[in-house]
């Protein structure tokens, strides 16, 4: 049974969401503040985090920033903010996905299932049990066991989304992928497609690779999408 931590200060909403998730077979713990959420996270093991943006005291963005320094747990940001720039900010700090209030419980369940499926595939690192546990390119290594990238003895953690993106790119370094194909393949959904969701995650992965190795990767192909290899 997957265990989910829900950090939401609206108590009625939190209880309704928890009831719906438990009915669908999940175990759910609730925290009503960012500080409480971090404390519970440190005390227990969770498979996914549902994190409200607007919390009393420490907000969801700050919680996300703190967790991303030490964890690749799948995070879905819950927000009442409808502007695209606000959603992009959430993705930039490390959220894997977002959902906007008010939302339908079925949409939330679909996003949770898709994100957990991606995370579990990343952790097994496998389309095939005999696959290699490390993929390499120009000295850069993708470690499937630890969900991180390595370069000359240094390492950096990846989120489930970043892992799936790099796993796809590093296997086919010269192939050009459209944004829509990446969204459907990596996010596991065809509905809710948004260019900026893909762009922000590519930018975040690109930055991690550069900070670790100095390699400039993932060039954009104008009007199409992205490929791997080095950028000029």
Overview of this protein structure:
By secondary structure, the protein is α/β, with parallel strands linked by helices. The chain has 2 domains: 3-124, Rossmann fold (3-Layer(aba) Sandwich); 134-226, Winged helix-like DNA-binding domain superfamily/Winged helix DNA-binding domain (Arc Repressor Mutant, subunit A). The chain contains 8 helices and 12 strands. Strands 2-1-3-4-5 form a 5-stranded parallel beta sheet, sandwiched between helices. A 4-stranded antiparallel beta sheet has the order 6-7-8-9, with helices on one face. Strand 8 (148-151) and strand 9 form a beta hairpin. The protein is globular and about 50 Å long. The termini are far apart. 33% of the residues are buried.
The CATH C-level name of the largest domain is Alpha Beta
Radius of gyration: 18 Å
Instruction: Write the CATH fold name of the largest domain.
Output: Rossmann fold
- Looking at the chains present, what oligomeric state does this protein adopt? single chain
CATH architecture of the largest domain: 3-Layer(aba) Sandwich
CATH superfamily of the largest domain: Response regulator
Tally of individual helices: 8
Label the overall shape. globular
Number of strands: 12
**Distance N to C terminus:** 47 Å
Residue-averaged pLDDT: 87
Q: Could you give the order of strands across the largest sheet?
A: 2-1-3-4-5
The SSE order reads EHEHEHEHEHEEEEHEHHEE
What structural class do the secondary elements suggest?
A: alpha/beta
Percent of residues in helices: 40-55%
Low-confidence stretches: 126-130
Sheet of most strands:
5 strands, parallel
């Amino acid at each position: 049974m997957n265990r989910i931590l829900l950090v939401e200060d609206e108590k009625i909403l939190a209880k309704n969401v928890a009831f719906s998730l438990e009915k669908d077979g999940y175990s759910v713990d609730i925290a009503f503040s960012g500080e409480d959420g971090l404390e519970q996270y440190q005390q227990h093991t969770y498979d996914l985090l549902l994190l409200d943006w607007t919390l009393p005291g420490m907000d969801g963005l700050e919680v996300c920033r703190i967790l991303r320094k030490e964890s690749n747990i799948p995070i879905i940001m819950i927000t009442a903010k409808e502007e695209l720039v606000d959603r992009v900010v959430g993705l930039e700090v490390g959220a894997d996905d977002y959902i906007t209030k008010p939302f339908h419980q079925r949409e939330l369940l679909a996003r949770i299932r898709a994100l957990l499926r991606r995370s579990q595939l990343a952790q097994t690192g496998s389309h095939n049990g005999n696959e290699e546990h490390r993929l390499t390119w120009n000295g850069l290594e993708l470690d499937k066991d630890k969900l991180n990238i390595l370069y000359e003895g240094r390492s950096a953690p990846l989120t489930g989304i970043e892992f799936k993106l790099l796993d796809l790119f590093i296997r086919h370094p010269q192939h050009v992928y459209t944004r829509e194909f990446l969204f459907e393949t990596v996010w596991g959904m065809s509905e809710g497609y948004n260019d900026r969701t893909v762009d922000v995650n590519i930018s975040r992965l690109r930055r991690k690779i550069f900070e670790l190795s100095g390699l400039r990767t993932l060039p954009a192909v104008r009007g199409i999408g992205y490929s791997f290899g080095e950028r000029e």
